[in-house]
Design goal:
By secondary structure, this protein is of the alpha/beta class. The protein has 2 domains: 7-100 and 287-307, Rossmann fold; 103-278, NAD(P)-binding Rossmann-like Domain (Rossmann fold, 3-Layer(aba) Sandwich). The protein is built from 12 helices and 12 strands. It has helices spanning 16-25, 37-44, 61-65, 85-90, 103-119, 121-129, 157-167, 191-196, 217-223, 240-249, 268-271, 287-307; strands at residues 7-10, 27-30, 48-53, 72-75, 94-96, 149-153, 172-176, 186-188, 200-203, 228-231, 254-257, 276-278. The protein has a 7-stranded parallel beta sheet with strand order 8-7-6-9-10-11-12. Helix 4 (85-90) links the parallel strand 4 (72-75) and strand 5. Helix 1 (16-25) packs parallel to helix 12 (287-307) and helix 5 (103-119) packs across helix 7. It is elongated. The two termini are 24 Å apart.
Length: 322
C-alpha cells in the first residue's frame, strides 16, 4: 500500500479495520489518545490536511481555526450534524459522509424495532426469563401490524429501504419530507399531518437546527393513543420530556428508540417505562456494515489526496462528486 505524504488528524476512535488502513496510508495523529488534546493540536495543527471524524465528536469553527491547512473532513456515518459543514464549505473544506453502505442495515434495525415495539417481544422475553410463564401466558398484545398505516419521516435512502420492507407486511405507507417525490406513497407537508393520518411513525430525520425537538407534544397528541413512535434518525429531533409524558399518560401507546438526545445518557424516566423499547444506537452496528462505512471513509481521504475528487461530498461542500 502506497504511503501518502499527508498528515491526518483522527479525532474519534475508529475500528481496527479503518485505523489500520489510515495508519498504513497516512501519517496519523490520534487526538483521542492525547493526554493534552489542545497541546497536540497546537503542535501538529499547521501540518494537518485531512481529518477523520465520527462518534459525535464536534468539528466546529474553533477546531477548524486551529487547522489552517485542513482540506477534507471525512465523517464516519451518514449523519454529519456533528460537523459544521456550512462553515467548512465556506472555507473551501470538503466534508464527506458514508451514505448508501449502511442503508440496508439501518432499515433492518428499524423494521425489527417496530416489530419488537408493536408486539412487545422484549417484554415477553423478560416475562419468560423471570419464570412467569409457568403461572400463565403472557397477556395478549393490544397492538398489531395488521391493517396499520405507516408514516416515514424522511424518505431518503434509508427511508426508501424501510418502505420497501414495510410493503411486504401489507402496511400502507405515507411520508413527510422536504418535497412530494410523487412515488405512489401518500405525501404530507407537515409532520403533524402525517401523525394525524398514520398509526406508526418511523423517523429517519437528520439532526440540526431545523429538526431540533420537532417531535413535540402536538405531534404526539396527533399520533394518538393507538400510535407507536419509532426513532432511528437522531435523538435531538425528539422532545424527550414530551415523549416521556405521552408514554406515561397514554397520549401514545408505545415507542421504540435507537437514538437519544444526550447519548449515551438515557433519561431514567424513559428507561423505567414498560411501553418503551430502547436500543443503544445499534442501527448500523454490524461488523460487515461498519467495515463498509470505514472503507468509504478511507477511500474518500485517499481519493481526495491522490486524485482531487471526493467520492461522497455532502451538500454543503464546495466541490461536487466527480
Amino acid at each position: 500500500m502506497t504511503k501518502i505524504d499527508v498528515d491526518i488528524l483522527v479525532i474519534a476512535k475508529m475500528g481496527d479495520y479503518v485505523q489500520d488502513q489510515l495508519d498504513a496510508r497516512f501519517r496519523t495523529h490520534k487526538l483521542y489518545e492525547a493526554a493534552d488534546p489542545d497541546a497536540m493540536i497546537a503542535e501538529v495543527g499547521p501540518s494537518i490536511r485531512g481529518m477523520a471524524a465520527g462518534a459525535h465528536r464536534n468539528v466546529d469553527i474553533e477546531l477548524m481555526d486551529k487547522l489552517p491547512n485542513l482540506e477534507i473532513v471525512t465523517n464516519f456515518g451518514v449523519g454529519y450534524d456533528n460537523v459544521d459543514a456550512k462553515s467548512a464549505g465556506a472555507r473551501g473544506i470538503i466534508v464527506t459522509n458514508t451514505p448508501d453502505v449502511l442503508s440496508e442495515e439501518v432499515a433492518d434495525t428499524a423494521i425489527g424495532l417496530m416489530i419488537n415495539t408493536v408486539r412487545e417481544l422484549p417484554q415477553a422475553e423478560q416475562f419468560l426469563r423471570a419464570g412467569k410463564w409457568t403461572s400463565g401466558n403472557y397477556p395478549l398484545t393490544q397492538n398489531t401490524l395488521r391493517e396499520k398505516r405507516l408514516g416515514i419521516a424522511g424518505l431518503g435512502r434509508i427511508g426508501k429501504s424501510i418502505a420497501k420492507r414495510a410493503e411486504s407486511f401489507g402496511l400502507s405507507i405515507a411520508y413527510y419530507g422536504r418535497s412530494d417525490q410523487k412515488n405512489g406513497y401518500t405525501f404530507y407537508e407537515s409532520l403533524k399531518a402525517l401523525a394525524e393520518n398514520v398509526d406508526i411513525i418511523i423517523s429517519v430525520l437528520p439532526g440540526g437546527a431545523a429538526t431540533n425537538k420537532i417531535y413535540n407534544k402536538d405531534v404526539f397528541e396527533a399520533l394518538g393513543p393507538e400510535g407507536t413512535f419509532i426513532n432511528i434518525g437522531r435523538g435531538s429531533t425528539v422532545d424527550e420530556d414530551a415523549l416521556i409524558a405521552a408514554l406515561t399518560d397514554g397520549t401514545v401507546r408505545s415507542a421504540g428508540l435507537d437514538v437519544f438526545d444526550h447519548e449515551p445518557h438515557v433519561p431514567e424516566a424513559l428507561m423505567a417505562l414498560p411501553n418503551a423499547v430502547l436500543l443503544p444506537h445499534v442501527g448500523s452496528a454490524s461488523v460487515y456494515t461498519r467495515n463498509a462505512m470505514g472503507q468509504l471513509l478511507v477511500d474518500n481521504q485517499t481519493n481526495w489526496f491522490e486524485n482531487g475528487k471526493p467520492l461522497t461530498p455532502v451538500a454543503e461542500t464546495p466541490f461536487p462528486a466527480k
